[in-house]
């Protein structure tokens, strides 16, 4: 049997055989280190009972390692040129399906229903295209898919923002959005040297384990996220200023906002970045009741 796809030599051979040229616009940085891939699959806890969704299989480096350990792998790949390559490189594995589609446009729920009925749990595992990391993760979370978790390679800086604690400089609306749905942890940082071509930014692997329900009880989810966005609109401003300036009709409603801050015992002079997700939930519920 051939050597693993994710070795520098085999990758070079495959790229040469097909005359493949990387498209930077599609975030194509392929992994050439089987140790890193093994660790990603370990962190995802993939077993013969797991159904795996992969986003962007490239030439199949991670797909192959997943196929060896998972029950079933379904991979979404946007680049048509990679389809014949994947057909070739993944031919030894009969538990892989490649779907030629932009994952952002895909009906992932239907794919899960159709492909994973024999699986006990579903994980998303990927080396993500960096230009669309956040939209992909938010799509997977907002669609409330029946996932156990998401283990993905992404820009180190984005991983740090997703897993950040309150009051850290990385904490912001992305941290809250991700932590609303998941328990987030950066599990590994990864050097540039394990990719071809090497990306311009540092990379990390994040593990997001989905909560059984949202982290906090909110009366209206849309308003909760609107409040978070308003609170972080200008990071140097106080919470009260941000709410007054950025909530709809905030200026007219200033007395109500001040009253709710008092009731929830949150000092309006604090900055948004100092509030925990529980405090945001209390504020959101209080304001929603008072304003609507
Ligand atoms: N998994 C491979 C690896 O680790 O070597 C390739 C990872 S590479 C960082 C990202 C892959 O995502 C590329 O194959 C790219 O063509 C694909 N891709 C980019 N945008 C996509 C999208 N919107 N939907 C599906 N795949 C996409």
List keywords for this structure.
292 residues, alpha/beta, two-stranded antiparallel sheet, 12 helices, 9 strands, binds S-adenosylmethionine
Characterize this entry briefly.
The protein is α/β, with parallel strands linked by helices. It has helices at residues 8-17, 34-43, 61-69, 82-89, 108-115, 133-142, 156-162, 173-181, 221-231, 239-246, 254-263, 277-291; strands spanning 30-31, 50-55, 72-77, 96-100, 121-127, 149-155, 182-190, 195-196, 203-210. β5, α6 (133-142) and β6 form a beta-alpha-beta unit.
Describe this entry's structure for a reader.
The chain is α/β, with parallel strands linked by helices. Helix 2 packs across helix 3. Strand 5, helix 6 and strand 6 (149-155) form a beta-alpha-beta unit. The protein is built from 12 helices and 9 strands. Bound molecules: S-adenosylmethionine. S-adenosylmethionine (SAM) binds next to strand 1, helix 3 and strand 3. S-adenosylmethionine binds next to strand 1, helix 3 and strand 3.
The quaternary structure here is single chain
Structural class assignment: alpha/beta
Tell me about the largest β-sheet.
7 strands, mixed
Rg from alpha-carbon coordinates:
22 Å
Identify the strand order in the major beta sheet.
4-3-2-5-6-9-7
